[in-house]
């Protein structure tokens, strides 16, 4: 397997490491792999970030992925992605570490990485969010993050449902349906109501509404 | 209308019962928020102007940013903020398309694509031990090699391919024990010279084959006098250095493999006394410059090896590096500061006597002195050389000068905010002209008609653009007067550049900026830094003719015992009203809740000998203070030794009326072998709590223990105080304490086994939320502790509460030792955290949201209801009605509740919240390398119409109603008439 590693020390023994915590195999055929190499005090962690639909294009990455960062132990080391999505941390002491990926627009689960001192080159990785083991140190976003609410397309109902829409609707009912109702009413009743109104005097704007309401 | 009101009330109730998020629509960006991008004080700059097309300058800064700027306008093309431990040493451009950065003391070499900032390759250079870092990129090396870059770092010399970062060869100097000072590539040869010093007293030079790193030649010469500082090369055969006593200039020349030494006394050279001479690194050929305390001398080295002083200039003159021009000529620039202007002159090395170019540029007084200059040339149409200069000023701003004018400027001092406070704007003057009102009314109506069109989807794309513009540029937003809702404020910002800025909260423009005189570098105050910013005078009731002002506390030096300076700055004009020169030291600044008759806030400054200094220094202030001094307490945290101490006022100092001595009241000593203090947090002084009672399900009441004097202290076992991965779960223990700072009583203590720091916490009302790392689960966790007052628990009788027969009005005293009970709960949280804050509102009625600054430099708003210790897996019906959420093990991250939405506040350091006058709303200011400001309504704006509210639609409805009334009236009249005729 081709190992994308640039190291000046030839004496390193490269140990490829496939530790399976659980057997949820990822269906990716990439050659990315986590390697830890003894180097005096420190080890190297290599990995890859895969953002579907972005990294495949190769060099000219969209601006979105341009500013992606990989962070070890909450800011102890910060590194950036190469055009193919690979990254590496150098001079990492043995122990259990946490790697986070910061790419705006995507949510990544932090990954727990164990760098073993006893058998150099052994790396164990697991997603901390889902506790799923990784046989390769490949980061894939849990989900895309949309920071904005999607504005709903224009809807007649939304206007009708708004307080003003309801008011206009009510008016329409009063103006157009009420006369129809009045027409269908018993002429006796209407006369009675009109008499009543006459007793009250000429309908003014102020008492028109309740007046017409009473005639109902 | 009543119906409509009812309906809207109903809608309000519905919307309140949901979990509110600060969701924004994409077209609302920039409506009530602003985001500003900065880079910090420029350390180094490389121009890229050779080819046609975009002209850029690549800079590295003290905020550890590498950025590519547009040379025409000063805008940022791209920018990367490197890790805090990964300090940039050198930058350069290779192959005309890659930006090369060398960082981490020469151990990490990266190449960035110049157009878009994508990292192309990265090489790790493992050195044996730390040394200085050098980077040399040959301009045109005639070799079949793939364009090597030469890097010296960690005592090794590397040749690295600039195409893919592959290491071609490596030469380790650890065995030679040599410290390399210079790498010299002579033009046209295949040899690189590594010049250095062994054991500070032996000069060494190695000639190394650029193809394979083999040593071709090695010459050395020891001089017993020793060497001070760096060796500087004049040419590939001549070098200069200072001897260890700094009184002799050594000229080292190599001829045919033989080294000859020549010593010249500095005093002979420059005739007269010269203190602290230094050789300046510059890339001038045949010339070097020597600085003393008073002047800079340019000294020419002749072919015969004679030193000649060519010119002496004042020490304040800033000299640029040499710039190679096309015809083998070299140029450099000098900048001299005059009265409110600067004089820029460019000289050619071959003709030092006259200025090639001399320009005078008007310069804002508030920018201070010039600190750095970088020059670049261009060829004018008449084939002569034109020069542009990039200058870095004392206030960290960056300016481009060309043809005697400032082409653009960047206020990059704002990238290093130390402290933030706010100030009110002036009250609007009454009496507005009628014409203005009519005009604005018409404009207003037009705007709303457009908006209406927008909502009805009738607007054309052009009109939509206009609507967006109206929204963004609303003149209301950036008005310089106080508004009814308290949204418009002045953000007063103290920066590391010792400059005080006032930003308008509406659109973020700089209202004024002042380079503080009290923090100016001087003999008395050699290394001034800003410390704190406090509101000093807030005229509200009295002294209304005065402007509000802020107090700036600074310190002359890094140690706690260095003297401090104070100044009072008027927030309307930015003028320094008063300043007190270096006096006593300042360890702590305590604003007291008292003010004098002119509404100046009383402040206590505690010095390193535990004396208390009272400000303002007036008789009245002393009287007020002495009246209240029995109730003044403070504490300090000695994190190194693990001790908390509480103090009270004892008596006056001898001889100083405004100074008091402290008496130690209590101490809490943490055992140093098991507990190390890593974090302490107290409540914000200006926080308002609406009610002490909390009504829970079953109409029960719980009483919050509300005290301003709670201190949250987190300690870890000493082994676990390092970074993550350095300790095993078994040896790490995190203990959190809630301490009463009046009595020293520990109210609550809780330990988290297998957990470690860093701890970020926020304390508000009666609760504390803290973020830490759980090593067993290997995830971050957030815990909440709520503290309740048990002594008031029997006040449950509602009747008593109504009648007033309860003990709620009895004063709360720390000395009464009330019974307290606590509740706590922990949850997982996905991200690392850089800062935590909490929203604050004017009356404290609105529910709270936590503002979490994540490692990705975003600010996430998290409803406090998610961190409620009373959450359970299956809440009862009553609890559900109360709004209690079912328990989950992880806190949710809802993308829409990022208050920074699609922006990043690079290098986030702090989040400040400021209550607006409108109870529902809080103002949020997040700062780091970038600045971000927005307005939040944690429970939505229940007390005002949103700015999206369409007045035009309302007007239209009313008009429609009136028209309808008339129509119906007319119709009914007509019908009446017809009836009558019948």
Description:
The complex is a heterodimer of chains A (216) and B (982). Chain A contains five helices and twelve strands. Chain A is of the alpha+beta class. Chain B has a six-stranded antiparallel β-sheet with strand order 44-45-46-49-48-47, with helices on one face. In chain B, strands 27, 28, 29, 30 and 31 form a five-stranded antiparallel β-sheet that branches. Helices cover 11% and strands 44% of the residues of chain B. The longest helix of chain B has 31 residues. Chain B contains eight helices and 65 strands. Chain B is mainly β. The chains are: A alpha+beta (216), B mainly beta (982). The interface between A and B is large, with 71 and 83 residues. Strand 12 of chain A pairs parallel with strand 1 of chain B, so a sheet runs across the interface. Chain B: Belongs to the EMC1 family.
Count helical runs of chain A: 5
Largest interface: A-B, 71 and 83 residues
User: Low-confidence segments of chain A, ≥5 residues, pLDDT <50?
Assistant: 1-39, 55-63, 208-216
Mean pLDDT of chain A: 68
Instruction: State the helical fraction of chain B.
Output: 10-25%
Major beta-sheet overview of chain B: 6 strands, antiparallel
> What oligomerization state is this entry in?
heterodimer
Give the total of beta strands of chain A: 12
- What is the rounded distance between the termini of chain B? 38 Å
Query: What sort of overall outline of chain B do the alpha carbons produce when their principal axes are compared?
Result: globular
User: What is the strand arrangement across the widest sheet of chain A?
Assistant: 3-2-5-7-8-9
Largest sheet of chain A: 6 strands, antiparallel
Strand segment count of chain B: 65
Number of helices of chain B: 8
Summarize the structure.
The complex is a heterodimer of chains A (216) and B (982). Chain A is an alpha+beta fold. Helix content of chain A is 26%, strand content 23%.
């Amino acid at each position: 397997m081709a190992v994308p590693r640039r190291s000046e020390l030839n004496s390193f023994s490269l140990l490829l490491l496939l530790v399976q915590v659980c057997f949820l195999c990822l269906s990716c055929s990439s050659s990315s792999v986590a390697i830890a190499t003894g180097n005096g005090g420190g080890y190297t962690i290599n990995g890859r970030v895969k953002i579907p639909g972005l990294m495949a294009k190769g060099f000219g990455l969209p601006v979105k992925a341009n500013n992606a960062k990989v962070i070890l132990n909450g800011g102890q080391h910060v590194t950036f992605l190469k055009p193919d999505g690979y990254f590496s941390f150098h001079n990492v002491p043995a122990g259990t570490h946490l790697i986070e990926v910061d790419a705006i627009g995507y949510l990544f689960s932090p990954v727990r990485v164990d760098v073993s001192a006893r058998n150099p080159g052994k790396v164990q990785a697991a997603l901390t969010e889902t506790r799923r083991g990784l046989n390769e140190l490949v980061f894939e976003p849990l989900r895309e993050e949309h920071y904005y609410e999607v504005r709903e397309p224009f809807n007649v109902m939304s206007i009708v449902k708004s307080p003003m829409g309801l008011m206009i609707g009510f008016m329409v009912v009063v103006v157009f349906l009420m006369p129809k109702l009045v027409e269908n009413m018993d002429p006796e009743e209407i006369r009675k109501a009109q008499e009543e109104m006459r007793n009250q005097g000429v309908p003014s704007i102020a008492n028109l509404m309740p007046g017409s309401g009473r005639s109902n | 209308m009543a119906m409509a009101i009812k309906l809207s009330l109903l809608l309000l109730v519905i919307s309140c019962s949901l979990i509110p998020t600060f969701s924004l629509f994409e077209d609302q960006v920039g409506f009530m928020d602003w985001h500003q991008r900065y880079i910090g004080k420029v350390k180094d700059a490389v121009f890229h102007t050779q080819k046609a097309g975009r002209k850029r300058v690549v800079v590295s800064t003290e905020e550890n940013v590498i950025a590519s700027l547009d040379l025409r306008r000063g805008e940022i093309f791209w920018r990367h903020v490197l890790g805090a431990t990964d300090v940039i040493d050198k930058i350069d451009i290779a192959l005309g398309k890659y930006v090369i950065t060398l960082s981490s003391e020469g151990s990490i070499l990266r190449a960035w694509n110049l157009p878009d900032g994508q990292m192309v390759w990265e090489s790790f250079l493992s050195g044996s031990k730390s040394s200085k870092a050098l980077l040399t990129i040959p301009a045109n090396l005639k070799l079949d090699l793939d364009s090597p870059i030469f890097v010296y770092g960690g005592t090794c010399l590397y040749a690295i391919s600039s195409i893919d970062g592959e290491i071609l060869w490596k030469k380790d100097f650890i065995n030679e024990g040599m410290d390399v000072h210079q790498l010299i590539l002579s033009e046209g040869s295949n040899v690189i010279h590594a010049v250095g010093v062994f054991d500070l007293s032996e000069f060494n030079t190695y000639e190394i084959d650029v193809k394979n790193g083999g040593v071709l030649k090695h010459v050395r010469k020891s001089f017993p006098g020793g060497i001070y500082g760096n060796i500087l090369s004049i040419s590939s055969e001549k070098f200069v250095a200072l001897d260890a006593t700094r009184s002799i200039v050594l000229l080292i020349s190599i001829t045919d493999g033989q080294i000859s030494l020549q010593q010249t006394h500095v005093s002979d050279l420059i005739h007269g006394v010269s203190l602290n001479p230094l050789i300046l690194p510059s890339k001038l050929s045949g010339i070097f410059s020597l600085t003393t305390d008073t002047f800079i001398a340019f000294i020419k080295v002749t072919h015969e090896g004679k030193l000649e002083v060519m010119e002496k200039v004042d020490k304040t003159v800033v000299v640029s590096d040499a710039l190679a021009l096309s015809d083998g000529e070299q140029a450099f620039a000098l900048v001299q500061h005059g009265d409110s202007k600067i004089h820029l002159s460019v000289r050619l090395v071959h003709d030092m006597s006259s200025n090639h170019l001399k320009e005078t540029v008007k310069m804002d007084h508030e920018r201070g002195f010039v600190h750095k200059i970088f020059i670049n040339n261009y060829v004018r149409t008449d084939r002569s050389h034109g020069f542009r200069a990039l200058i870095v000023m004392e206030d960290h701003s960056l300016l481009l000068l060309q043809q005697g004018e400032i082409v653009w400027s960047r206020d990059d001092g704002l990238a290093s905010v130390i402290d933030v406070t706010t100030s009110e704007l002036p009250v609007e003057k009454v009496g507005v002209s009628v014409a203005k009102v009519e005009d604005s009314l018409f404009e207003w109506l037009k705007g709303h008609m457009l908006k209406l069109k927008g909502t009805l989807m009738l607007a054309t794309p052009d009109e939509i653009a206009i609507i967006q513009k109206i929204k963004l540029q609303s003149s209301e937003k950036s008005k310089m007067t106080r508004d009814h809702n308290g949204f418009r404020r002045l953000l007063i910002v103290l920066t590391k550049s010792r400059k005080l800025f006032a930003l308008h909260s509406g659109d973020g423009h700089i209202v004024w900026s002042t380079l503080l005189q009290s923090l100016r570098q001087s003999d008395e105050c050699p290394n001034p830094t800003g410390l704190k910013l406090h509101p000093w005078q807030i005229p509200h009731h009295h002294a209304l003719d005065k402007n509000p002002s802020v107090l700036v506390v600074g310190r002359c030096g890094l140690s706690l015992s260095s003297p401090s300076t104070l100044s009072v700055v008027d927030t309307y004009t930015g003028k320094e009203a008063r300043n007190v020169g270096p006096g006593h030291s300042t360890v702590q600044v305590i604003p007291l809740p008292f003010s004098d008759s002119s509404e100046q806030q009383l402040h206590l400054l505690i010095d390193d000998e535990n004396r208390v200094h009272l400000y303002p220094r007036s008789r009245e202030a002393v009287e007020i203070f002495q009246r209240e001094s029995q109730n003044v307490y403070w504490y300090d945290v000695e994190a190194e030794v693990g001790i908390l101490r509480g103090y009270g006022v004892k008596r006056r100092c001898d001889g100083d009326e405004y100074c008091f001595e402290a008496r130690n009241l209590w101490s809490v000593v943490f055992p140093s072998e098991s507990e190390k203090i890593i974090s302490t947090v107290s409540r914000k002084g200006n926080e308002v709590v609406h009610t002490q009672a909390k009504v829970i399900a079953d109409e029960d009441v719980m009483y919050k223990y509300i005290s301003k004097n709670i201190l949250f202290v987190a300690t870890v076992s000493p082994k676990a105080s390092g970074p993550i991965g350095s300790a095993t779960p078994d040896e790490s223990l995190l203990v959190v304490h809630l301490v009463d700072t009046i009595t020293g009583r520990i109210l609550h203590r809780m330990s988290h086994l297998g957990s470690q720091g860093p701890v970020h916490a926020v304390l508000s009302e009666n609760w504390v939320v803290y973020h830490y790392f759980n090593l067993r689960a290997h995830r971050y966790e957030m815990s909440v502790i709520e503290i309740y007052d048990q002594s008031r628990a029997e006040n449950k009788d509602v009747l008593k509460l109504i009648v007033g027969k309860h003990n709620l009005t009895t004063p709360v005293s720390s000395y009464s030792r009330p019974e307290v009970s606590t509740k706590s709960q922990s949850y997982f949280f996905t991200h690392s955290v850089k800062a935590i804050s909490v929203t604050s509102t004017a009356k404290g009625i609105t529910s709270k949201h936590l503002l979490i600054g994540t490692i990705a430099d975003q600010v996430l708003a998290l409803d406090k209801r998610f961190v409620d210790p009373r959450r359970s897996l299956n809440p009862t019906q009553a609890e559900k009605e109360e709004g209690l959420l079912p328990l989950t093990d992880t806190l949710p991250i809802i993308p829409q509740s990022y208050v920074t939405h699609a922006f990043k506040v690079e290098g986030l350091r702090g989040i400040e919240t400021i209550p607006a006058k409108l109870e529902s709303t809080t103002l949020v200011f997040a700062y780091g390398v970038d600045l971000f400001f927005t307005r939040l309504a944690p429970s939505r704006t229940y007390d005002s119409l949103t700015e999206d509210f369409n007045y035009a639609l309302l007007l239209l409805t009313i008009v429609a109603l009136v028209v309808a009334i008339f129509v119906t009236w007319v119709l009914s009249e007509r019908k009446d008439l017809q009836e009558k005729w019948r």
